[in-house]
Amino acid sequence: MLNYILTRLISAALVILGVSCLVFLLIHLVPGDPIELMLGESARPADREALRHALGLDLPVLTQLNNYLSGLVQFDFGTSIHTKQSISELIFQRIPASAQLALSSLLIAILIAFPLGIIAAINKGTIWDQMAMGFSLFGVSIPNFWMGPLLIMIFSLWLGWFPVSGKEGVSSIVLPAITLGTAMAAILARMIRSTLLEVLHEDYIRTAIAKGLSRRQVILNHALRNALLPIITLIGLQLGTLLGGAVITEKIFSWPGLGQLTIESIQSRDYPVVQACVLFISLSYVMVNVITDIVYAAIDPRVRLSDNNSA
Amino acid sequence: MAIFGSFMGLNPDVIQLPKILQGPDMANWLGTDDLGRPILDRLIMGAKTSLLVALWVTCLSLVVGTFLGAASAYFGGWIDFIMVRIIDVFLAVPGILLAIAFAGIMGPGIENVVIALSIVGWVGYARLSRAQVLALKHRDHVQAAIALGSSSFVIIRRHLIPLISAPLIVEATFGIAAVVLAEAGLSFLGLGVQPPEASWGSMIRDGTAYMLVAPHMVITPGIAMILVVLSVNLLGDRLRDKLDVRTR
């Protein structure tokens, strides 16, 4: 087990290193002079050189990369061009709001997906199944930047149940969380249905039914438990889409999280902050997946055994 | 509709201030927006933008991704090792986030949207074609082609890619839907096509400012988009069943 955790951590570290390089290259891959993009064409040459020097962009690229990476190790992302604040401070201010939104969306997705998926699986082929899967297809197709304004229109402007935007009190998180969680709920529901259907064909389910257990017991204790593993992995993987989608959702609801910071910095052309946000969001995604993998291996010994054999 | 839009004599950019924010009526079937422009006309022009971006991005990422993935699996060794690491890195960054960052730094504009979405898009195809080729490359006909001295390029193009095209086509169909959504998302954030050019995403964004007086400005582009994405996804489902591709 320790071996497995170590291999996973090492490969995650490699991925994180790669992501850092990609994010570093973000500015350099873009055609044109980043300084000109940031300051505009009318900036004075002296200002340009000052910013170029402040950002270290006048050094050779490899030295820049070296400086960048060694800064990251100490959690030093540099300072914001726009507000002159330390970027790590800016990011830490936004983490609580982002984490709250991600967790509540996840909760909503799970609360919707499990009942839907289970109902669809045990009533396969009936109208219930079709309705659940219809909802799921709809949920995947509905863009969050449309659903968000629509929810605001109905529940905030017409009914006045929830605040339009911002983060005040518990009720303000409801609409953003629904907006962000729906797509994930849709994908999860499909997955729960198909894994449950697979599991329901297994011999031990027949045995359980033959033993005279109630339908409820069979589904919850025998089928769902065994179907849970691939579902946990999917939740981990989907979290990436969730974190990415949060950028748009946070913008719609003026939710003061990392996503909004990303957009704000893009608008103010504060590229070091954009880089740091992308890096930080990706980092959390990678870490979540490592944890998912480890939890998965802890629950199911087959995973780490097969991994050791193939390695 | 989207293709013929350019020839239909539409007035997507004509500003008619007396008609601003009108609901649907006989002259303008879907109403007008905040500058009095007919929403139906703008929807159709937006469809053109969407379709154009979707086709470009899907073609670019499909070709680049398939080829890199297939070549990586075919050659194996350190090429494959590096390729897998690169794919892992790209998969570790949420796609839409990377696209937003690239489009944001490159600045708005339709070409930049295509580039940003392609940078994100190729990875999926590369991973898929790599996995498929890994399973195929020890088949007899490939070994025979190697023995006959065919060049690697010919083997990949003639003997491998045709065999893996079915799952790739299915993936590309779903990819089109994803790109339509992503393009609209970027436009919603103001990173897509620039005004007065129409895009569904920017139409929704413009509409959010007038939700109380003119809800049709938000509702119609969204419905158009959902219909497109829904039908493309259904098409993908059908294709998957037809071409008998196992769900991964």
What labels would you give this structure?
heterodimer, A: 311 residues, mainly alpha, 13 helices, 0% strand, B: 248 residues, 8 helices, elongated
Describe this structure in words.
The complex is a heterodimer of chains A (311) and B (248). The two termini of chain A are 14 Å apart. With 311 residues, chain A is an all-alpha fold. Chain A is globular. Chain A contains 13 helices and no strands. By secondary structure, chain B is mostly helical. Chain B has eight helices and no strands. Chain B starts with 38 loop residues before the first helix and ends in a 6-residue tail after the last helix. Chains A and B meet through helix 1, helix 6, helix 7, helix 10 and helix 11 of A and helix 2, helix 3, helix 6, helix 7 and helix 8 of B.
Shape designation of chain A? globular
Please, what is the oligomeric state? heterodimer
List SSEs of chain A in N-to-C order.
HHHHHHHHHHHHH
Structure class of chain A? mainly alpha
- Strand element count of chain B: 0
Number of helices of chain B: 8
Q: How big is the Rg of chain B?
A: 22 Å
Beta strand % of chain B: under 5%
Strand count of chain A: 0
Strand content of chain A: under 5%
**What is the number of helical segments of chain A per DSSP (H or I, 4+ residues)?**
13
Main beta-sheet annotation of chain B: none
Q: Helices and strands of chain B, in N-to-C order?
A: HHHHHHHH
Describe the global form of chain B. elongated
What is the percent of helical residues of chain B?
A: 55-70%
Q: Structural class, from helix and strand content of chain B?
A: mainly alpha
Q: Low-confidence runs of chain B (pLDDT<50, min 5 residues)?
A: 3-7
The separation of the N and C termini of chain A measures 14 Å
In a nutshell, what does this entry contain?
The complex is a heterodimer of chains A (311) and B (248). In chain A, 79% of the residues lie in helices and 0% in strands.
Question: Which SSEs are present, and which pair or pack?
Answer:
The complex is a heterodimer of chains A (311) and B (248).
Chain A lengths: L1 H28 L4 H6 L5 H10 L6 H13 L13 H36 L4 H15 L2 H15 L15 H27 L2 H8 L4 H38 L5 H10 L3 H29 L1 H10 L1
Chain B lengths: L38 H37 L1 H16 L2 H12 L3 H27 L3 H8 L4 H37 L11 H9 L7 H27 L6
Helix pairs in contact in B: 1-2, 1-4, 1-6, 2-4, 3-4, 4-6, 5-6, 6-7, 6-8, 7-8
